[in-house]
Fold:
Amino acid sequence: MFDSLSDRLGGVFDKLRGRGALSEQDVRDAMREVRVALLEADVALPVVRRFIDRVTEKAIGSEVLKSVTPGQQVIKIVNDELIETLGGEVHVGLNLDAKPPVVIMMVGLQGSGKTTTTAKLAKFIREKHGKKALMASLDVNRPAAQEQLAVLGSQVDVATLPIIAGQQPVDIARRAMESARLQAVDVLLLDTAGRLHVDEALMAEMKAVAGISAPTEVLLVVDALTGQDAVNVAQSFSGEVNLTGVVLTRMDGDARGGAALSMRHVTGKPIKFAGTGEKLDAIEPFQPSRIANRILGMGDVVSLVEKAAATIKAEDAEEQARRMSKGLFDLNDLRTQLRQMQSMGGLGMLAGMLPGMKKAKAAMAQSGMDDKVLVHMDALIGSMTPKERLNPALLNAKRKKRVAAGSGLQVQDVNRLLKMHQEMSRAMKQIRKMGGLKGLGALFGKGGIDAAMPGLGGGMGGGLPPGLPGLGGPKK
Structure:
């Protein structure tokens, strides 16, 4: 996410950090590079102009140029302006406080991911807000569109309106409203039809449906990968329909970030959610401050902790913490942690969310290391007997050959896995010598991870986030 833009900006700011003092010309030269980076990221020209003008005006002030760390001050100004461009400090969520059924109308072009996003949102509303939801497909143009929503509804455990062949969108909307009232539904999600482009028929249909359902939320779903086209679509819709927010899909594949950075300025509407993958739980509230941190390579530890809390079972974390406190760490423990890493998004996702890990992530990509490594290690451990997992010392040359053959890998891969386990096991024993998790936590509290283990933390500071596998102990 935003990799290209993040890399370009990282190079600019590395130069600023390396300067002991900055002149006004230094700042203007840096802003010229930032301008090029934003334009290459497909950010709308008016947004780029406004951004550069505001940052330059603040950055060439005497209090910045004469400060002890002018480079860091400029970076902070850029960070603050990025947050403002993306929508401000506060995340604007769904308005679910209206009289039920609260109607959420999903609009957008065909192929933007509208139907899948409807199901993702319904799941989010049911799980995070504890609301009873109902979905209804109003798309009578695209073949099997209504059936698709019904299938997704069964997967996310949210009811869908029964399909009546031949019914038109306005009639379906009217029936959905009546059904929602009879079933005491809290939130009704209407998945409207899309088109290949914005036309009068599409807008007329949306206005008619809005007139029947009086939606509290009208969410425009756009594909982030289309960049400037996504912004143009949003502009067209906002001129015709009373939008309340935007959902950006395929954000996980958006290396440039132009759509996200332009959307708020162009439409005047907040980005409320971001789709981050194909799975039906791969949607997250759009938090401008966290996105800005990711763009500038500062990580997003808060989101990482939330992801850990959502994917790691409390009892598993507590059991791991108990074993760690005793200095125990066998291959079953390693396998558990590998699977937790996979469920949290894999190596790339974790590296992108940790501060100071940008270069490590690049090194991983250059060496060809990806999430297949986690799958291979899991396969190796799965090829071992229960006794071998509990006691890796049993693995002699003959056993290693059997494990390698059983997993379709090489003996060298078995050796690498065992070496990794030995190093992690030594770390667990070291933690025990330092007084267990409490002692380690106290040490981190005094000087952060850099003080505890110099050269390891990459400037994280403040200790490790709670709830991460094998790091911060059990969740509360």
